[in-house]
Specification:
This protein has 779 residues and is of the alpha/beta class. It has three domains: 12-131, no CATH class; 165-202 and 250-472, Rossmann fold (3-Layer(aba) Sandwich), CATH 3.40.50.1820; 520-774, Rossmann fold (3-Layer(aba) Sandwich). 34% of the residues lie in helices and 19% in strands. It is built from 24 helices and 20 strands. Strands 3-4-5-7-6-8-9-10-11 form a nine-stranded mixed sheet, sandwiched between helices. A nine-stranded mixed sheet has the order 12-13-14-16-15-17-18-19-20, with helices on both faces. Strands 1-2 form a two-stranded antiparallel sheet. A hairpin with a 2-residue loop joins strand 13 (552-562) and strand 14. Helix 8 crosses helix 9.
Amino acid sequence: MASIRFGCHTTILENLSRNHKLADRSRPLPSNCSATEPNLVFPRGRRGRHGRRGTSEHKASNERPCLAAMVRLCLPRAENSRRSTMQPSRNKVIQSRRSRVLRKHTFCFWRVWPIICCMLLSGISPCSNSAASAEHVDGADVLDTAERESFFTRYFERMTTPRSLFTFADRESWLRHAQALRQRVLQSIGLWPLPERVPLDPRITGRIERQDVVIERVYYQTLPGTYASGYLYRPRESSAGTLTKPLRRPAVLNPHGHWPEGAADTNVQARCIGLARMGLVAFCPDSTHVMDLPIGLCPIGLMTWNNIRALDFLQSLEDVDPERLGCTGGSGGGQQTLYLAALDSRVKAIVPAVLVSWFRRILFASEQTHCFCNHAPGMASITDEPELAGLFAPRPALFICATGDWTRDFPKEEFPEIKHIYNLVGGEVSCVQFDKPHNYDRDSREQMYAWMNKHLLDARGQETVREGDIQLESPATLKKLGPLPPGLAGLDGAPDYFRSKHSFNRTPQGGTGQPAHSRAPTIQVLGDLLGERGPCVPFGAEYRGTSSAAGFRIEKVLIQTEPDVRVPVWVLEPERSKVDQRRAAVVLVHPEGKRALLENRRALVRGLLDAGVVVVAPDMRLRGELRRRWDWNCVIWGRPEIGMAAHDLAATATYLRSRAEVDAKRVRVVGLGETAAMALFATALNDRVAGVAVEQGGPMFAETRGPQAPAGILRHGDLPEFAALIAPRPMWINGDGDRFRFTQQCYDRLRSSGTLRRSDLDQAEFEKELIVWAGGGRR
């Protein structure tokens, strides 16, 4: 009979053949057990967070009684009284006692054995730690708290290090760089190539006439069948129908930030009315936060296009001089000003207020975040805000900042960089700072009025413009000027246009489904989408000792997958056989990390180990021990979470191939839950991985809109297209739902259809067949 360990660290036969004292409930328990109740016995272990050993405090924990204790309950009590008053000889007494003990223990064995079998079949472990407690899993962490925080700090610093503009030594080098940078910025915000310029078809739905200003509600077409909106402010004497030949006036675009009432907020009204009273036309378009990142559409991209079309609208007005256009905005409106001015040369003067700074000042190493409209996909990997501001040179720019927000250090840190570019190419640039909190109040507006007066109205002798008293409308009054006209679609329709215009062509040609040498361009595209900057190989590995969790012996390892990135992994090895041989291995990925893997999928792990497969459970960046919500940081860094995970998994697979006990030709990646993209991308990036299996063939990127997908990926393909890069290596897609037909076609073209499996199994069936597949079998 096999030796099965009890909580008392003895075997079944040893417990059943010990002397009769064990069967006597009136006698002391074995030295390493203690009773919490008359009928319950718990293993005596080390002191833990539940209190003293062997006390009733164990009842509060989730531990179950050990199997040895349950067996003990089935043993008969000892007979303390003599059965006979006779005094047989010593030999006879010994023989009688031995036969009596043997009969009783034989009877006890057949009483206990069915219970043991039932417990084993029902999943109760015969080990003393019959259930994996959270305490033991926690104790197997590879990193301590200080190391985790140090990782986030170092990684954040590396990803947000400012770019110095002082590296540009002459005008020509800057102008060459600026030309290329503009195209990269357009690509980042989803506007390359620029959308078609459809007729504006402006609609006026409401009007307020005052003694000095006329306010109109305007809708204008920015994309086919898609209309943006805004408020137009004009001096009374230049409004339509007032003059036979209206005077051509400068116009200033006024994108707004996160004011409570948006474009109708009194803060926004004040500067638009102030500009109109100076004799300029002012237009304030409504901001939008519509996005569809998988197709490359982000809020700042759509707002920039709306603002470009707003300039078209202003130039179409009879009373606007198309050569004298300016732009100003505060906070988020300042951000819109920055992007528009950098990309559209029609803007002749700008005043961004309380906005410009290094990106790092508006990002956080914690989970805190500003509005996602600040996070243009990949922008921090190609430029920074001072450099965007430099693209406006040599046109005149005034930067307003405050001591009470993230622009407090702008005058001494960012502004000198911008001024350096202006020194190279010429032009006027200035900076004004107020000792105030984040705002665009009257003092700031009056600085803006003077700047626009000087550079658009050419009133150079007037250094100061006072705002005076302004009559404001209530936001509710402006919002009642008119809803979207019937039959017109608002900006919510923009994603549909971008998908119809830019989605990939699903045909097995080009880089996908072709021989390996012609697939290189597609792999390069995938690497760019994932933010890959180098090979997916480990820089080193650090052994951190062994531990135990959920009944498994664990080797703890830190794998350095990038500079300043060390990924914690658990290595679980099967019992070594008598014959030393290299084993198959899997990188087993759970969406919540390695701890959740052992807590929720313990039977699968045990099955793989029993089949002789080495299991590595990693915590990729932002998962498990490295968990942190950095969705929007990842977006602006151009390093999506899926890209981080794919890189870490590919490097982990390379590390696994280097282990002495592993057969390097039989290392596979398995993605559980919604980790299909991570597992498939990791295998595509690392051609040394022998194969990949995913439990759920999705979700598709076409089914998402937010930061879970790499920005712009649907312009090149979806999961089935990129999965085809793995051919002809073995791949198993469970939960296929007939969505990977394209992948199947590519495998067929390479005559490797036998290595692709598509199925729709439930979890139990998938785990059962995965154990065979991971060892190298077809099923």
